Each structure stands twice: as C-alpha cells, then as structure tokens.
Amino acid sequence: MGRPIAAICMDCGRGQPYSSSPTAQCQSCGSVWLEPHYDYLRFKREVLQGLPGRPHNIWRYQDVLPINEPENLSFVNVGWTPLEPSLRYAQSIGLNKVYIKDERYGPTSSFKDRQAVLTIAAAVEANIPELVIASTGNAAVAFAAACARAGIKLWVFMTSEVPQEKLRETALYGAEVVRVNGSYEQTKQIAQEFAKQRGLLFERGARSIPARESMKTIAYEIVEQLGWQAPDWYVQAVSGGLGPLGIYRGFEEMLRMGLIDRIPNIAILQAEGCAPMARAFQANQEVATPVPSTTRIAILSTADPGKTYTLLYHRLKATGGAMEYVSDEAAFTSMRSLAKTEGMAVEPASAVAFAGFEKLVSLGVIQKEQTVVINCTGHTFPVEKHVLGDQWNVDIDLSRPAPAEEKMDRALDHLEEKTITVLIVDDNPDDAQLLRRILETLQPVRILHAPNGLEGLAEARQRLPGLIILDLMMPNLDGFSLLDELKTDDRTADIPVIVISAKDLTSEEVKRLSGRIEGIHQKGLLSIQTLRTQVASVLEKKRSRGG
Predict the structure, then answer these.
(1) pLDDT tens digits along 175-211
(2) Which of 209, 279, 380, 386 has the fewest CB atoms within 10 Å, counting from its CB?
C-alpha cells in the first residue's frame, strides 16, 4: 500500500525512518513537522498504466498516502469530487476556463471529509479509541461522521460563534460537543489541555501527517480530471491554511514525477475581518501577526495561523501565488451570484474564495486566458435542528474576567461537571418528554433519547452515558433483553440503570431485575420527587468517582 519509505523533517531537513505514530517527531531536532516520502517511481508506473482497477476515491492514490489498509475505513464516496466547468458565472467575470472543484459531494459536504477519513483510518490502524478535536465548523462535522463510522469516541470543541446548525450536525453523529464562549485560539488551548489531562490524542491539524497528506488528493484529482494537465491557478478560501499546504505538496510530488510541467499559482483568500495570512503576505512578512477576529463568517476565524502561514509564504513566493482578503459583504454578494448563475448554494466561507477570485481578476493578477480551479466546499441548509433536542452540547464561558490559568482550570472543572449524560430509552414520546422535563431540573446533565431498545443499545455503547432510564415494554428489543446486553458487555456493565415501566411485574421478572438496577418506578404511580432524588443520588456518585 502507501506506507512511506522515509520521513523528512520540515525544520532541520534531516531524514529518518517513517513512523505511523500520531505523536511522531524528528529524532534530531524534536519537530513534529515531518514530511513522508514514498516510492514515487512505483506510483508513476501505475499512472502510466492508467491506474488500472483503481477506485474513483482518495484510495486511488493509495501509493502516496500514509495508510497500510485503506479498507479499514472505506467511505467509497470520499474524494473524486466533480470538476465542473463554470458556465454563466465565468462568463459574467469575463473568463472562459474556470472550473469548480465541487467538494460538496462527500459524506458531510466538505473537503474536510478527506482529512477526517485519512486521519481516522490512521487512528484505526493505531488502535486509538478516543480523539479530541478543536474546529471552526466543517472539520468537526467531518470528523464526527468518520468517528461514527469507525466506532471512535470524539470530543469536539468549538467556539460559540460557530453556526448552531454545524454544532447540531456534529452532535447528530454522536460526538460530545463542547461549545466555548471564547476565541478559536482559546478553544484550541482548552481542547489540548482537556486531551492532555485525559491522556487522549489531540488532532494536530496541519501538523498531522494524515491531515496534510489527505489534502494533496485534491491536487491529484484536478490534474487527472484535466487530462494530466496542471491549471494556471488554484483558488481556495482558508482559515488555518491546511488545505493549500497539502494541495501544494500534491502538485510538488507530481512535478517531481514528471506528471506535470509546473506547480500552479495558488491563491489563498481570507475574510477581511480575520486575514492574518493575507495581510502578512502582502507586507512580505514571513510570520503572521495574530489578529482579533471580527468577521461574521466564523468558519474562517483562525486568528493565528502559526507555522502553517510561514510554510505557505515560502512556497507561494517561490512558485508564484497570491494572498488576498475580501469583505463579508463581497462574499455574500458572490453567494447570490453563484446561486443565480450556476444554481449552486454555497456557504459564506466558500463564497470568500469566489469573491477573492473576482477581486484578483479585477486587479489583473489572474489573467482572463488562464485556466482556474476554484475549491467549492460546505453546505448551507442542514436540517439536524429538526431532529435533535436542546441539550446537544456542553457550554464553557471564557469571557468572564479572570487570570488566564485560573480561567482555564475553572473551565475544565466545569466541563468535567457537565459531561454526565442521561440516556432515556422509551418508545413512548410523551413519556420520554415528561422524563426529560423532570431531569432537566437537575442541571448539570445532558439528556439523550432513544425511541426503542435497539437504538438504546447502540447509543449506550457509543456514548457510554452516566445513567440509563429504561422502559421495559418496547418493540424489537425489550427492556429486559437490553439490560442483559448491557450487563454482559464490559463497556456498559457498570452503567447504572433506573427502570420506569407501566408493566405489572411477575415475581420472575422482579428476580431478573434484582441486583442489576438502581430502582424501579411505576409509570402510573410515578413520584416525581422520589425519581428526582434517586437520579440526583446516582449522578452524585458518578461525579465523586470521576465517572
């Protein structure tokens, strides 16, 4: 498969044997910025033979990807997204050779699907059961879907400025969502600290080999879809810059193999209200100065791109390229223009790329006879808010005045306090809603509902709740059978269970429940106060044990 033959340090330039460890670092200088190298001659031979029998997804290029067994996570529809020639939109700008790389054709309608699938495939190979990520939106959704597919527990930290629809969509896939009332940089910091305290892997973004390598598949696809020709320009809106960094590498590899004759000019676009990279590039600065984010397009609100910018700066200066910014209003105008001319509904973050493209054309940077590819990613109308209840995230407020260290400690304490989940398994929606209202008075708790025994079992195994409220009479899998499954599974055996049922129990049924539940309540004779007291007691025991 695509196991790299070596790794080269991007800081000191020294080589070493490749390690698939997600925490690998340079053996000489300690840098985490490692670049894998492959058997490029072998892959070139495959290309010259027409890549026979290869699937039309990212695994088509498995020889130059750091995964031994791609079937470990086989999302067949990740990658090989359409490269569509623009019709009326390009004509309105005065260009004839504009192509749209439509990354909306993926599991979560974002090019971040590539990053998530390759990263999680690597996690599966490394037997990693739990992961933490900080995100401004699309990466969170993509990782949540991939983790659900792989059976990996995911903690997602996002700022409160991220659109509610993206937070809800992330929660829909079963991720633990933590919403931070602070900047993205603060969010990333608290996510890293949370991962460190729990001994969990923190997804490193641009510093991650699978993340960067996943993005280069976009470059390979573009070139192959253009008949093994490189475009003149590749255009993309960015927040942190991971995409263009990986895509540049793809073009670089193909140039090294002689598959293309040049590296395209790369245009990086940012929202004016958060444009540290564009402003630094235009000032010929090798290091970007962090800026406060004022853009309404929260997905593009990375205020400090760090080393990623410096790497992009040197690459774009060496091969040609541009960094520019556009206003939120210009992006919204491009949204409307695309909808009216191409019939494409894109999210504001993607519209920044199109608005920036228009600006670069007007400035004469992009010439009208040149071939241009624009990355289009993300969606606009998620429907998850109609499916989920109200308690799908945990809130952390970093805005109150306090010393930084004290604020972080308090936030983490608060998070630990708030992450106990109660799962209601009941096929009667009215009864479930009543239970939800009773339990909501016991804040802090997070309440989930499964409408039958089979879904309840799946939720319990994936979410590992702190308490289960269980009905006994349900279709498909009744409460007794569900309890049997829970108690014979090491992962769920210790989850406390409270039974609430309308069933008149026989002596045999009482015996079957004995010693396996915390208590039993009759629906028609339910004492709200008794139930509330019992649940509070169970949750307090969980907290005291750190569960």
Answers:
(1) 999 988 888 889 999 999 999 999 999 999 999 999 9
(2) 386
Q: What is the CATH number of domain 420-544?
A: 3.40.50.2300
Domain residue spans in the chain?
83-108+215-376, 420-544
Phi, psi of 468 (to 5 degrees): -120, 130
Pairing of strands 233-237, 153-159: unpaired
Higher-confidence residue of 526 and 158: namely: 158
For residue 216, give the 3-state DSSP assignment. helix
**Whole-angstrom Cα distance, residue 162 to residue 49?**
46
Give 90-95's long-range contacts (Cβ < 8 A, gap of 24+). Answer: 92/337, 92/341, 93/357, 93/358, 93/361, 94/361, 94/368, 95/361, 95/366, 95/368, 95/370, 95/372
Ordered alpha helix ranges (H), 385-527: 404-418, 429-440, 453-463, 479-487, 507-513
* pLDDT tens sequence across 85-96: 998 999 989 999
Q: How far apart are CA 353 and CA 63, in angstroms?
A: 31
* Nearest C-alpha neighbor of 434 from the set 453, 447, 420: 447
Q: Which of 190, 187, 173, 204 is nearest to 136 (CA)?
A: 187
As a dihedral over the C-alpha atoms of residue 311, residue 315, residue 318, residue 323, rounded to 10 degrees, the angle is: -100
Per-residue DSSP letter, 288: P
What pLDDT does 536 receive?
A: 87
* CATH number listed for the domain at residues 83-108+215-376: 3.40.50.1100
